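[recover] target loaded
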């Protein structure tokens, strides 16, 4: 079987599939407060196009699909997409990253469609701070959505927390404690330079070691060896209750083990979150290309994947689009 292997021997097995760039929140670390231009609806891939490309990718060894955006639950009928791709031969799991606003009404539909893992963004346990970070007063709705997901048996439920100095770093302990009394795994994410408002500065990043120091105050923790291609380094509380993970893209990049590829809502392949080149898959999907032509395109494209991002290099250049438009 042909595989998607890059020049450094990394084999792609995971796809981040963005179904929309639109969002009903305006998180300060992701989007500007206003003036966002959306992808025109005719430029967005249809569900049939997405299903076709997922099927082609499974023939190249892709096994795990994560649906993201923008806010994926803003795309009407997303549960039908999940249902169809989760049945494809070769797809091992379909999961989603969501801001949770629509989860209250969607959780059961998603589970029934075959969704088996969900990451919900919740940066604070304090409604006022949540508002400050997301620019929306949606805290209660999101919490209700997470609780609804819990009732459906969607598992695992992970809570994504982007930690920003001076905003929510004083809540690291409380958020870590949440993993001890609720069936949620907490994922602390270092703030990356992908925000639409040019707010990112290195001194706003709370590093993995700073996060660990605070989490250790809750109770004794130990690192558990995990799949190196998982972006999170996993720690468990030694008394057996609770797990946290830290995604240290800035302080400890994990590019050497990256096995992901991204597809934007308008059909561009990105070989890295920070890639400066976007590869136009949509023109193949909408032209008269055969599945074999598209496989050849993907095999060529993956050869352009670089060894790693250069956030920590003084000559770092931000990608053209911000996180919500790429698909986080
Ligand atoms: N709207 C959904 C959500 O917020 O969960 C899915 C898309 S969002 C772009 C995916 C993830 O990226 C979220 O967990 C979000 O917190 C994270 N994210 C966005 N901007 C980020 C940044 N600049 N640095 C680190 N993580 C970021
Ligand atoms: Fe929207 Fe998610 Fe970005 Fe927040 S992180 S603005 S919820 S896409």
């Amino acid at each position: 079987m042909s595989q998607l292997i890059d020049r450094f021997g990394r084999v792609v097995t995971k796809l981040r599939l963005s179904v929309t760039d639109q969002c009903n929140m305006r998180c300060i670390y992701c989007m500007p407060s206003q003036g966002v231009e959306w992808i025109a609806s005719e430029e967005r891939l249809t569900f049939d196009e997405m299903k076709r490309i997922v099927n082609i990718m499974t023939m190249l060894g892709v096994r795990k699909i994560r649906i993201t955006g923008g806010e994926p639950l803003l795309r009407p009928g997303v549960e039908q997409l999940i249902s169809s791709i989760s049945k494809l031969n070769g797809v091992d799991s379909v999961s989603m990253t969501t801001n949770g606003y629509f989860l209250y009404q969607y959780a059961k539909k998603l589970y029934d469609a075959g969704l088996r893992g969900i990451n919900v963004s919740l940066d604070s346990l304090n409604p006022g701070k949540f508002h400050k970070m997301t620019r929306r007063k949606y805290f209660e709705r999101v919490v209700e959505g997470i609780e609804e997901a819990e009732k459906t048996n969607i598992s695992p439920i992970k809570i994504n927390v982007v930690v920003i100095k001076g905003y929510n770093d004083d809540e690291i302990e409380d958020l870590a404690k949440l993993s001890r009394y609720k069936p949620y795994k907490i994922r602390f994410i270092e703030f990356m330079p992908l925000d639409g408002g040019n707010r990112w500065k290195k001194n706003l990043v709370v590093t993995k070691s700073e996060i660990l120091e605070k989490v250790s105050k809750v109770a004794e923790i130990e690192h558990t060896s995990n799949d190196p291609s998982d972006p999170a380094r996993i720690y468990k509380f030694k008394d057996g209750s609770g797990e946290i993970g830290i995604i240290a893209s800035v302080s400890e990049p994990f590019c050497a083990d990256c096995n992901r590829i991204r597809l934007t809502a308008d059909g561009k392949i990105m070989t890295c979150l920070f890639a400066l080149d976007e590869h136009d898959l949509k023109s193949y999907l909408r032209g008269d290309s055969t599945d074999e032509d598209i496989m050849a395109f993907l095999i060529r494209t993956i050869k352009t994947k670089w060894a790693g991002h250069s956030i920590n290099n003084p000559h770092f250049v931000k990608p053209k689009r911000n996180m919500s438009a790429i698909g986080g």
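[recover] notes: The pocket of iron/sulfur cluster (ligand 2) is lined by residues 23, 25-27, 30-31, 69-71, 99, 121, 323-324 (CB under 6 Å).
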